[in-house]
């Protein structure tokens, strides 16, 4: 998988997920009225990509997978449980802390150093934070 088609597919999926989760339509869907906190946490729970990498990529171990996954879950729970007034700060702080931990405390193949930071950005910043939505205009932000 190193440097091959699998890396490209994983990268496309991950980077695409960051962008898609930050779109107006995704924000409207995932943050619509009546959505409970557990549905947001479930979205994070089903992102088992770290374990798929541990199975498929030599050098990406189970320790790295478990640490990345647990960091994402704990961080998501912290974001969801924080008051709305500081939710964005908690999410950004969790991403920065998670990047520090996943890039210094575990060994991963150099070609996958981007994985944990992008996963945390996708889930914590892209998915869990509602993004401004301007209704009734086609011009977007000014």
Q: Proportion of β residues? A: under 5%
Question: How would you spell out the order of helices and strands?
Answer: HHHHHHH
**Unreliable parts:** none
How many H/I helical runs? Answer: 7
Distance between the termini: 43 Å
Mean pLDDT across the residues is 83
> How many strands?
0
User: Compute the gyration radius: what is it?
Assistant: 16 Å
Global outline: globular
- Specify the structural class: mainly alpha
Helix content: 55-70%
Main β sheet profile? none
As for the number of domains, it is 1
Transmembrane segments: 62-80, 87-105, 111-129
Keywords: Membrane, Transmembrane, Transmembrane helix
Structure, described:
- The chain has 142 residues and is mostly helical.
- The chain has one domain.
- The chain is built from 7 helices and no strands.
- Helix 1 runs parallel beside helix 7 and helix 3 runs antiparallel to helix 5.
- The model has no long low-confidence stretch (mean pLDDT 83).
- Keywords: Membrane, Transmembrane, Transmembrane helix.
Write a short abstract of this structure:
The protein has helices spanning 5-21, 24-30, 37-45, 49-56, 62-81, 87-104, 115-127. The chain is an all-alpha fold.
